[in-house]
Structures are given as structure tokens and as C-alpha cells.
């Protein structure tokens, strides 16, 4: 039986903080305990936010923590063709459509509807897409495409669910799992989720399931903030005939106010702690590992 495969998959859009250290070290610990393999993946789909200096810092910080991983490291920006092929498969089945509204336009549409009846929101709190682009005629859609208008590629959730049937996953971490460790997937909670854009051949959801399958990942260990995103991932795995890993969603490292650490809030980075003379051993103690 082949060894289990774990992965740590950060995005180079900022410096790693204690939350990343916890996830990386937990993956390494579990891989070692299971006599498994540890992979590092650089999730740099977003070319506007990902920068080479952040990627270099990821390697430096992880080496400083004492981690080692298999090489070569998979970088998502080197594999756009794989994601495009997955999109083409879904498109050929009629499961994708283009939407051309900007985020501001969608917000206005939702606000108009929200004034009367509360508009449904996804597990992250964002309003569901109203589905207005489905009402476009083929001629209108073709004209917008020819005009070069930006567009998002959305999964037709109703059609996808009809094709996929019931879904669940094996959960070995913290979350509302059943007695047998099975969680019923609820991808419908995300509505017609974006899985690609005109200028980027994949969203996080699509890229991560394609990468995990191509890399043979058997155990996905990540934060609880991605717990319900697993519903979308299980749906895409079923639609693309990809294997389903085991999942373990761990508690998040939080600041003194109880908020999760985030690059967007400029949580103290590992490089800053290193510059202050904090040792890797102290970092491990701080995060309980």
C-alpha cells in the first residue's frame, strides 16, 4: 500500500504568520507519524497579488522552522493547461456559463433584492449570485464575449447537483461530522460558484482539486475556515472523476481579540519573529506543537 501524501499549500500573496506555521507543522507531524510524504505547493493563481519575494520568503520561513519537503515544488502558475482541460470537460457537459457583471453590479442587484427579503448568503457570508446571466440569449452572450468584456465562469449548481447526486466526505478533524466521521456535503449553499475567469483558467476551488488529484494527495489538512468549501471540492471531484482525499480541518490560530490571523490584517509574520530573535522552538510552543 503506498504511503499517505500530505501537502502544505500557501499562496505567495504575503508573509507567513503563526497560523501558517501551525498548519505546516501539523502536516509535517502527521506525515511523519504515518510514514508518509510531505509536499509543498505554491498556490499562485492570482497573478495580481502573488509576488516572487513572498514565494522566496515561504521557503526561508519553512526552512527556518526545520521543515523539509519533496521537490520539485508544484507552482500553480506553471499548470494552467491542466485547469483549462478540467474547465473544458465541465463546459462540454453544459455545467458552466459566463457571467459578465462586475462585483459592484452584483452588489447593487443583491441590495435591491435584499431590501424586501433577506438575500441568501454563502458560508463565508457573501451574497449568492442572482443568476441573471442565465437569462442572456446566445446572441447577447456571444456579443459580450466578442466585445472583450471581463467574465466569470460559473458552475451551474442546479445542473451540477443533478449530475453528481449525494456527496459526503471523511472528516478526521474538528467540525460537525457524524458519528462515523462522515460529513454530508452541501455545495448548494455556495450557489453558482466561480470556478474560473476569462483571464485566469481556474479559481481556488478548481485548482485545488485538480492539484490534489495530480499529486496523489491522500490527506488534506487545513484550517476550519475551509471546512464548508470542501462541499464544493467534493462536487468538483465527482464531476471530474477525481479521487476524494481524507480531510482534517484544524482549529485556527487567533489573535488576542479572538480574530483569526490573516495576511490582510498584517498579522505578525514569521520573518518578523525571526528578526526579533524568536526561535523555532518558541514558535512551536506558542501554537501548541
What topology emerges from the helices and strands here?
Elements lengths: L4 E4 L9 H16 L3 E6 L9 H13 L9 E2 L4 H13 L3 E4 L3 H12 L23 H9 L5 E4 L1 H8 L3 E3 L11 E3 L9 E4 L6 H11 L4 E5 L5 H11 L6 E5 L19 H6 L4 H7 L3
Parallel strand pairs: 1-2, 2-3, 9-10
Antiparallel strand pairs: 4-5, 5-8, 6-7
Helix pairs in contact: 7-8
Task: Describe what you observe in this structure.
The chain is of the alpha/beta class and 289 residues long. The protein has ten helices and ten strands. Helix 7 crosses helix 8 (229-239). The model has no long low-confidence stretch (mean pLDDT 91).
Strands of the widest sheet, in order across it, are: 1-2-3
Percent helix, as a range, is 25-40%
Major sheet, described briefly?
3 strands, parallel
- Quaternary state reads single chain
Mean pLDDT: 91
Output the number of helix runs: 10
Strand content: 5-15%
Contiguous low-pLDDT stretches (5 residues minimum) are: none
Overall SS class: alpha/beta
Q: SSE order in H/E notation?
A: EHEHEHEHHEHEEEHEHEHH
The global form is: globular
Alpha-carbon distance between the termini?
Answer: 29 Å
By DSSP, the count of extended strands is: 10
Radius of gyration: 20 Å
Quick structural gist:
The protein has 289 residues and is of the alpha/beta class. It has ten helices and ten strands. The protein has helices at residues 18-33, 52-64, 80-92, 103-114, 138-146, 157-164, 204-214, 229-239, 270-275, 280-286, and strands at 5-8, 37-42, 74-75, 96-99, 152-155, 168-170, 182-184, 194-197, 219-223, 246-250.
Amino acid at each position: 500500500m503506498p504511503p499517505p501524501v500530505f501537502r502544505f499549500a500557501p499562496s505567495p500573496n504575503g508573509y507567513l504568520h503563526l497560523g501558517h506555521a501551525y498548519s505546516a507543522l501539523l502536516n509535517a507531524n502527521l506525515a511523519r507519524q504515518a510514514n508518509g510524504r510531505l509536499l509543498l505547493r505554491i498556490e499562485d493563481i492570482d497573478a495580481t497579488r502573488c509576488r516572487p519575494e513572498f514565494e522566496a520568503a515561504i521557503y526561508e520561513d519553512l526552512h527556518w522552522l526545520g521543515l523539509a519537503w519533496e521537490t520539485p515544488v508544484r507552482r500553480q502558475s506553471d499548470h494552467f493547461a491542466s485547469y483549462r482541460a478540467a474547465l473544458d470537460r465541465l463546459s462540454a457537459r453544459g455545467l458552466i456559463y459566463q457571467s459578465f457583471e462586475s462585483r459592484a453590479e452584483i452588489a447593487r442587484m443583491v441590495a435591491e433584492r435584499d431590501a424586501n427579503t433577506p438575500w441568501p448568503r454563502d458560508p463565508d457570508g457573501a451574497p449568492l449570485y442572482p443568476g441573471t446571466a442565465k437569462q442572456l440569449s446566445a446572441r447577447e452572450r456571444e456579443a459580450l464575449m466578442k466585445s472583450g468584456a471581463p467574465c466569470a465562469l460559473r458552475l451551474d449548481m442546479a445542473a451540477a447537483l443533478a449530475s453528481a447526486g449525494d456527496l459526503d466526505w471523511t472528516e478526521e478533524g474538528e467540525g460537525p461530522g457524524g458519528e462515523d466521521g462522515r460529513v454530508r456535503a452541501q455545495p448548494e449553499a455556495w450557489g453558482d460558484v466561480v470556478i474560473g475567469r476569462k483571464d485566469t483558467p481556474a479559481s481556488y476551488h478548481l485548482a485545488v482539486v485538480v492539484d490534489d488529484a495530480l499529486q496523489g494527495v491522500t490527506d488534506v489538512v487545513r484550517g476550519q475556515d475551509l471546512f464548508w468549501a470542501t462541499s464544493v471540492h467534493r462536487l468538483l471531484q465527482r464531476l471530474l472523476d477525481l479521487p476524494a482525499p481524507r480531510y482534517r480541518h484544524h482549529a485556527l490560530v487567533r489573535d488576542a481579540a479572538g480574530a483569526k490571523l490573516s495576511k490582510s490584517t498584517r498579522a505578525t509574520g514569521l520573518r518578523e519573529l525571526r528578526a526579533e530573535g524568536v526561535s523555532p522552538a518558541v514558535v512551536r510552543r506558542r501554537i501548541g506543537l
